[in-house]
Backbone:
């Protein structure tokens, strides 16, 4: 169908104008068809419809982009929320806490009240996890989180830093208010927590750091953490306010830790051997290996100054391994020099952590075999508290050590909280009575009776007693009259360097 | 059944020999609501039965995109013959057929008898 002379048809000009407007981006432009409904009108209608489609596709695309963008923003917000929230308790995590501390520091420049941070560590939480399982542990952590939220104001932030460690950010508060919140948090944790049929306690050691203007966020948490460790050292379940002196002791400890790490490899460690004697004859029945650290700059360092740090940092495992290897190798060297002098034992101290060392049993077995030392010549001294835990992994290891044939001795007896009835079933053959029990014995008749009773108790349980810390002739005589057979202490011998041990064995008793 | 045209409606609907006849008024500009109204009438006229439908769209002014999309929704029509005569009708019909997916067999005709033959063949 045609209208005749198409070239003169004004609709063609309108069509061109319309297409130009559409091309310029005006997708709402439409060209009016005529009533002829001919081919030109069909083209006009087609162009109109194409413009409509294009407009629809554009707006649809824009809508899709805006929907997807909104979805991405939503997902990003959810991810951020997840990344900043502790899964278990729903509290803020360390990342969010850091952000909020930084915000609080910025905001505090006007108010002049810098934020404060509390770090709380649940005391004895590991015991809950070990004894009742991780499910119970998690329930306790959730309850702790709930109680801490009750202790704070709406503007404060409670966070879980990880494990059994929590933190509270307190903003816009005076020192008194901060301490009040710390005490409220502590008070909230005094009540027991019911987990199924079990009742447990989840008290906490709390460190408090009140910020000063310009105080950086990371050092606020670090300082509160240091104060928390001081609270732990002060017997747990208490609150300590950070003081700069605390930093010095931390630096000292980290210096010792770093140097101790090198001490093993650097050959700075040595063993001294203190004779264990038969009191009546002065005959040496064994030697206790005692660790010494010859620091290249600080000289001789006694174990009291570094063993607790080694225990905290896990370095004790490496030290223990070294003592075992060196002590047993020394036994072999002595045997090589004096093959007939083998009638004595070597006592080595074993820390609680070492009992859980995976390769301990194998290490003991191999070390003895490598040095051709009979297992009964090695006596492992274990502190009383370790031996008291029944049905634990430690108890199993002790049983296996006994099966190996090595001797087991309870160390520091009288300093822990021994159950007397348990004394009979202990996996040990000797008990070392702690030096503190005989310290004032000579001048205190009551204490004499007490020591005599303890010795009697040990014998009744079928165990041998060794008293340590004998420093005077009077103590030695008194102990002998009480029927004590073995002992050690400065009265008999100081710890000896290895080269003097054989001479001491050959000599007669120093004192009788 | 005679033609049904509500007040202001842009179309009439009648049933002849079992085939629905939907006739848009000449020059009608069909919007989405017109399409919905017409479809409701078609569904109503069919009841539970599906029928072929002849849509007389000759001389329709325009059909909006939204109105066209209404006819993508399944209705009681089992076949739809779009009847037009001008090149404009052909363009309109093919935009409907090309851009949207009809819910039942749909075809454009310029001959009423051809359209009726096709519709009847599908019954």
Residues:
């Amino acid at each position: 169908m045609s209208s005749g002379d198409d070239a003169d048809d004004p609709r063609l000009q309108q069509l061109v104008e319309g297409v130009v407007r559409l091309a310029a981006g005006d997708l709402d432009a439409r060209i009016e068809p005529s009533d002829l409904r001919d081919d030109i009108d069909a083209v006009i209608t087609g162009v109109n419809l194409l413009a409509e489609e294009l407009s629809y596709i554009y707006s649809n695309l824009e809508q899709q982009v805006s929907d997807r963008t909104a979805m991405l923003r939503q997902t990003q917000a959810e991810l951020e929320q997840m990344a900043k929230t502790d899964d278990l308790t729903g509290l803020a995590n360390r990342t969010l806490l850091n952000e909020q501390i930084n915000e609080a520091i910025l905001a505090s420049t006007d108010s002049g009240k810098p934020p404060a941070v509390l770090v709380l560590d649940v005391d004895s939480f590991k015991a809950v996890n070990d004894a009742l399982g991780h499910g119970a542990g998690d329930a306790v952590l959730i309850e702790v989180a709930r109680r801490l939220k009750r202790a704070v104001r709406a503007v404060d932030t409670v966070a879980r830093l990880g494990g059994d460690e929590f933190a509270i950010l307190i903003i816009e508060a005076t020192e008194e208010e901060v301490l009040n919140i710390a005490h409220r948090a502590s008070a909230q944790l005094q009540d027991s927590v019911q987990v199924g049929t079990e009742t447990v306690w989840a008290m906490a050691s709390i460190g408090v750091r009140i910020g000063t203007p310009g105080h950086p966020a990371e050092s606020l948490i670090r300082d509160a953490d240091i104060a928390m460790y001081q609270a732990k050292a002060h017997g747990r379940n208490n609150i300590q306010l950070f003081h700069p002196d605390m930093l010095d002791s931390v630096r000292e400890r980290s210096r010792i830790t770093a140097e101790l790490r090198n001490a093993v490899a650097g050959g700075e460690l040595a063993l001294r051997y203190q004779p264990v004697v038969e009191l009546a004859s002065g005959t040496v029945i064994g030697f206790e290996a005692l660790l010494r650290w010859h620091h290249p700059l600080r000289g001789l360092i006694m174990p009291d100054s570094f063993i607790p740090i080694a225990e905290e940092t896990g370095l004790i495992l490496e030290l223990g391994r070294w003592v075992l290897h060196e002590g047993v190798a020394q036994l072999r060297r002595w045997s090589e020099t004096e093959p007939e002098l083998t009638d004595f034992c070597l006592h080595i101290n074993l820390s609680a952590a070492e009992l859980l060392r995976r390769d301990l049993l194998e290490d003991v077995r191999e070390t003895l075999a490598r040095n051709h030392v009979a297992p009964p010549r090695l006596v492992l001294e274990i502190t009383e508290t370790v031996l008291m835990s029944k049905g634990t992994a430690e108890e199993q290891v002790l049983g296996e050590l006994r099966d190996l044939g090595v001797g087991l001795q309870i160390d520091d007896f009288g300093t822990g909280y021994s159950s007397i009835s348990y004394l009979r079933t202990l996996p040990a053959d000797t008990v070392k009575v702690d030096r503190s029990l005989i310290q004032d014995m000579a001048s205190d008749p009551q204490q004499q009776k007490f020591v005599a009773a303890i010795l009697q108790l040990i014998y009744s349980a079928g165990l041998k007693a060794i008293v340590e810390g004998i420093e005077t002739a009077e103590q030695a005589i008194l102990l002998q009259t009480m029927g004590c057979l073995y002992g050690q202490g400065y009265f008999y011998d100081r710890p000896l360097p290895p080269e003097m041990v054989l001479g001491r064995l050959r000599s007669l008793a120093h004192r009788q | 059944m005679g033609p049904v045209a509500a007040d202001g409606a842009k179309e009439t609907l009648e049933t002849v020999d079992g085939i629905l006849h939907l006739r848009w008024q000449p020059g009608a500009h069909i919007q989405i609501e017109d399409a919905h109204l017409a479809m409701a009438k078609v569904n109503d006229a069919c009841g539970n039965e599906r029928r072929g439908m002849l849509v007389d769209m000759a001389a329709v002014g325009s059909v909006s995109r939204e109105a066209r999309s209404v006819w993508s929704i399944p209705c009681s029509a089992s076949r739809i013959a779009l009847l037009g005569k001008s090149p404009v009708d052909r363009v309109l019909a093919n935009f409907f057929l090309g851009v949207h997916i009809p819910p039942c067999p749909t075809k454009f005709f310029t001959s009423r008898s051809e359209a009726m033959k096709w519709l009847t063949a599908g019954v």
Summary: Chain A has 17 helices and 16 strands. Chain A has three domains: 6-70, 94-242, 279-506. Chain A has a mean pLDDT of 89. The radius of gyration of chain A is 39 Å.
